[in-house]
Amino acid sequence: MLLPAQLETDSSPEDPPLVSPTVKLSDGRHIAYRERGVPKAKSNCKIIIVHGFGSSKDMNFQVPQELIEELGIYFLLYDRAGYGESDPNPKRSVKSEALDIQELADQLQLGPKFYVIGVSMGSYPIWSCLKYIPERLAGVAMVVPVINYRWPSFPDSLTREDYRRPLVKLLYWVAKYTPGLLHWSVTRKWFPSPSVMEEKPVFFNKRDMEALKKTEGFPMLTKERLRERSVFNTLRNDFLVCYGDWDFDPMELTSPFPQNQNCVHIWQGYEDKIVPFELQRCISKKLPWIQYHEVADGGHLLVHYNGLREAILRAILLGEEHHLYRPSADKKLSPKLSIVSFHSLDIVC
Length: 349
What we know:
Layout lengths: L3 H7 L11 E3 L5 E8 L7 E6 L14 H7 L1 E6 L15 H14 L6 E6 L4 H9 L4 E7 L12 H4 L4 H14 L1 H8 L19 H7 L10 H4 L2 H15 L20 E6 L7 H10 L3 E6 L12 H11 L26 H4 L1
Parallel strand pairs: 3-4, 3-5, 5-6, 6-7, 7-8
Antiparallel strand pairs: 1-2, 2-4
Helix pairs in contact: 3-4, 6-10
C-alpha cells in the first residue's frame, strides 16, 4: 500500500488528479476516503479522523513515522457528506453523521471497535457517535470541539454575555431563512472573503497564525469555491445541522466506557477565539468521564501545532497526560462571561 508521502513524491504537476477510493453506503451515496499509517491488517489500533468545517480528508494530521510504527496505528480519513469527493446527503442530521462513520468502518472491515478523533466542527459527529454507537468506540478525542448554544444544560448565566452567542444565532437565522441572499453576498467583490479569517488575528492567536503558514488553511472558504452552489450548500447544511436543535443533550450522555477501560478526551486552547474554553470546562465538570486538556497558549488550530498530535495520540491510546496540558485553576476567565475562576464553574454548572 502506498502511503500519502509516496503518492506525493511519485506524482508531478502534469499528472492527472488522483481519484480517491470510495465505499457505497446503503442509501446509495458514495463516501471517499484515504488511508495512512501501517497496513490495516498489521495495525494495533484503527483511528478514524473526522475533519471540520471547510476541510476534507486531505487535512493535515501529520504524525512522526516512528510513533506510527511504535504504536501500530492505522488512520482512516474520509470526506464527510458533500465534502471533497463524497456525495452530499440531502437528509443530513446529527445522527446520520454517526451512521456514516459506522457504515464506513464496517465496509472497510475495521472490526467491532475503533477510535475516533474529531476536529472543530468535526466534533459534532463524535458527540453523535457517543449517543448512537457507543459500543463501537475504543477511544474518543475531540479537538477544540464546537459549542452549540442550544444545548439545554448550559446555564444561561454562563452564556448570556458571551459575544459569540448572538453572532452564531444571527448567522444561523441568515443561513436558514435567506440562503439565496447569503450566497449572493459572500460571492460579491465588495464583500470580505471568508478566507480573510486566515489573515486576521481577531479569529486566531499568535500560535494559530504561525500554524497557518504551514497549512493550506480553509480551501473551501474562498470566493471561488463558494461560487460553486454545491460547495455553498454543503457548508450551509453542515452549519445548520451543527448549530440547530439536536434530539439529545450531550451533557446527559453516559460514559461509553463504564468499566473505565478508556475515557473521552477534549483538547482545548485557552486562547481560542472561536470556541470558548469556559464552556468546555463546564462540559468536563458535568461529565466527569471526560478528560479535559487545555493548552495555555493554544488557539483554535491546536491540531496543527508541533507536538500536539503526538500528545493527543498518546493520551487516547496510552492514557498518558503531560502536565503542560492540565487546566490551571488560578487562571481568570473572560470578564464577558462574568466568571472569575475555574472553581466557580462548580457553582454555575
